[in-house]
Design goal:
heterodimer; A: 406 residues; alpha/beta; Coagulation Factor XIII, Chain A, domain 1; 3 domains; six-stranded mixed β-sheet; 18 strands; globular; B: 261 residues; mainly alpha
């Protein structure tokens, strides 16, 4: 069980931005080359600033059967790491040792051809991932059954619904039976029931069959559910490596300390200095459905500011505003001349499991902005209820706190 | 490392066939003429060359029907042009795949060679019909044909690997290759014979395809003219050079195709 499946030593990957952006034609290359020579002649060898380390001195080891989640912001190097591990591109320096066959699912339906039938695409896709015809034959029925597309096997996939397309693509990948499976964000597509099925399959692959899984996701709750370990990447480095819960809280903490709040509106007569989320002491902002969430808004105000009214907005992970609360719903305006202080807002969390972003702001008496901080903090809703019941995959973004009577 | 790569290539050999099969299957889907297109295109250019060089310019035919002289030239040229055209555009055409999945990248250009070979079969069938029709049947020399076909492929693969890898970095080549092939069909003795152009012998021989077309005619037209060793020598040198450097350059750059494509 403690056999090493992946060993990564001092891995770094350098991208030269200029190559990507501007050297698309010979003319550009010649132009670029001449400019470099010219620059060298004039200032003798200035360092070019177009270099970007997508990965920097990454070291880790993964044991066989582990399910490792990789989290981090956009551009932290998650996808680059997966690409280097699956040999799609080469690292600039460092060493990777893999034991066993690796299969990567970086995108749903890579290599699917829209003109070909479902049956043809299963064979083609299997071959792209290194299966032989005999191996595909053996798993064919299982794949079709998992994808649930039996009736449409001989229809070109361009006529498939997007749900069917995704199901078929995942089904092929899930039946590759690699020793190491690398999955990137692919579960973001597809409906909830199918996502659940996929997570179940990944779990089965790792625990029952002893395969190693590397799993990149923005969906923190699936990382928490699925992974036995998680790694947090920050600017190409491993910032944290350990238990998923701790990695997730390190991730939400780092969001807070690294980024200044974005003040997107207001005259600044009153300013929000901090949004204090529940459980800030270390566990991160996490709540179950119908659990109590208290957000404390810390602020400062100039004497010139009039009476204040606070508000909060809650956004989904995709940035859609789905809820609002205004102070005057339940509390009179705050008198002028306070100089600063705190305002708390408490509510019973109605949101479905997932990650939510919080914005907050301050109005003057005419509902003109003193301040508005966007996406300042986030909280995560766990797949369970405050009274201990597990999440039941119900539909809807919010659960009503309703009274049922017989 | 090197041995590992070639072993991987062998392990993925079925993918080679699958990709070629996909390309052939998809190409003629939703077309009315279907596979007949593979015949119409080369046949049309044979007719045009026969008319322009044979009828209008009245080039010497060396005793054989001019149509079959052009047909044999076209046989070699089409194989070369299709192979080169397919391979050089193959990587960029599979950009999606290359940036998301690992497999030995050589699979992609090689599978496009397979597609060109399938087209060749159709042209070859027309040639056989034309040969029987005009009564220009080859002699014992025809047994050399497989060797010359292999030589065309190796030459085209060598050049194609260079162009495929270069196209990943510089999209200029995507425009340049069809352009070169367009010029090439005239710079190469497809529509005319070389044995009556002794004045340009040296210049024509610099083109590696000249030696190959001479060789095709030597083995299929059944004449008793001597084998054109002069141009054939150039062809051999070109082939070895392009193939060796082509593989070298491709292997050197393929690890970062995914970053540039």
């Amino acid at each position: 069980m403690s056999e090493t499946a992946i060993k990564v030593e001092r891995l770094s990957k350098l991208y030269r931005i200029s190559h990507l952006a501007s050297q698309r034609t010979v003319r550009d290359a010649v132009h670029h080359g001449m400019r470099l020579v010219w620059r060298r002649l004039r200032w003798n060898a200035r360092p070019t600033r177009e270099e970007f380390w997508a990965l920097r001195d990454v070291n880790f080891e993964v044991k066989r059967g582990e399910v490792v989640g990789i989290i981090g912001r956009n551009g932290a190097g998650k996808s680059t790491l997966l690409k280097v591990l699956s040999r799609i591109t080469e690292a600039t320096t460092g060493r990777i040792t893999l034991r066993g066959r690796i299969a990567s699912l970086l995108e749903v339906g890579t290599g699917f051809h829209p003109e070909l039938s479902g049956r043809d695409n299963i064979y083609l896709n299997g071959a792209i991932h290194g299966l032989t015809r005999a191996e595909i034959n053996r798993k064919f029925d299982e794949i079709v059954e998992f994808a649930d597309v039996t009736r449409f096997l001989d229809t070109p996939v361009k006529r498939y619904s997007s749900g069917m397309y995704v199901r078929l693509a995942f089904a092929v990948a899930a039946h590759l039976e690699p020793d190491i499976l690398v999955v990137d964000e692919v579960l973001a597509v597809g409906d909830a029931a199918f996502q659940k099925k996929c997570l179940g399959k990944i779990r089965e692959v790792s625990s029952a069959e002893g395969r190693t899984v590397l799993f990149v996701s923005h969906n923190l709750s699936s990382v928490r559910q699925l992974c036995t370990r998680a790694m947090l990447l920050e600017q190409g480095r491993v910032a944290f490596d350990g238990a998923p819960a701790a990695a997730i809280s390190a991730y939400t903490q780092s969001d807070k300390t690294k980024s200044e709040y974005k003040h997107i509106a207001g005259d600044g007569a009153a300013r929000i200095t901090r949004l204090k989320m529940p459980g800030d002491a270390g566990s991160g902002a996490i709540a179950p459905i119908f659990g109590e969430i208290v957000i404390e808004i810390q602020f400062e105000a100039k004497p010139s500011a009039g009476s204040l009214e606070f508000f909060i907005l809650v956004y989904s992970d995709e940035g859609e505003c789905i809820a609002a609360s205004f102070q005057t719903d339940s509390c009179p305006r705050l008198g002028a001349g306070s100089g600063g202080g705190k305002m708390s807002v408490a509510f019973r969390n109605p949101f479905a499991p997932g990650r939510y972003l919080v914005s907050a702001g301050i109005f003057d008496p005419f509902r003109q902005f003193h301040d508005w901080v966007e996406f300042a903090e986030s909280f995560e809703v766990l797949p369970g209820f405050a009274d201990g019941r597990a999440f039941d995959q119900r539909l809807g973004r919010v659960s009503l706190e309703a009274k049922w009577t017989p | 490392m090197e041995a590992h790569y070639w072993r991987d290539l062998w392990r993925y050999r079925e993918l080679l066939g699958f990709l070629a099969w996909r390309d052939v299957k998809v190409r003629y889907q939703q077309t009315v003429l279907g596979i007949a297109w593979a015949v119409v295109q080369p046949l049309t250019s044979v007719v045009i060359f026969w008319f322009v060089f044979g009828r209008l310019a009245k080039m010497p035919s060396g005793g054989q029907p001019y149509f079959i002289v052009v047909m044999v030239g076209q046989l070699a040229w089409q194989l070369f042009a299709n192979t080169l055209g397919n391979t050089s555009g193959s990587l960029v055409g599979s950009a999606q795949l290359i940036s998301k999945v690992y497999f030995p990248r050589l699979i992609v250009p090689l599978s496009s060679v397979l597609v060109a070979c399938i087209d060749f079969i159709f042209i070859f069938v027309i040639y056989v019909i034309a040969a029987v029709w005009t009564g220009t049947l080859p002699g014992i020399h025809a047994l050399w044909l497989p060797c010359f076909i292999a030589l065309v492929l190796l030459l085209a693969i060598g050049a194609g690997l260079w162009l495929a890898a270069l196209t990943v970095r510089f999209r200029d080549f995507r425009i340049l290759v069809p352009f070169l092939l367009q010029i090439g069909v005239f710079a190469t003795p497809v529509g005319y014979r070389t044995d009556y152009l002794t004045r340009f012998k040296e210049i024509l021989a610099l083109n590696p395809m000249t030696g190959i077309i001479d060789a095709f005619r030597w083995c299929l037209l059944g004449g008793d003219e001597p084998f054109a060793w002069y141009s054939f020598g150039f062809t051999l040198v070109w082939t070895v050079f392009l193939l060796a450097t082509g593989i070298w350059y491709f292997r050197r750059t393929e690890k970062t195709f995914a970053d540039d494509i």
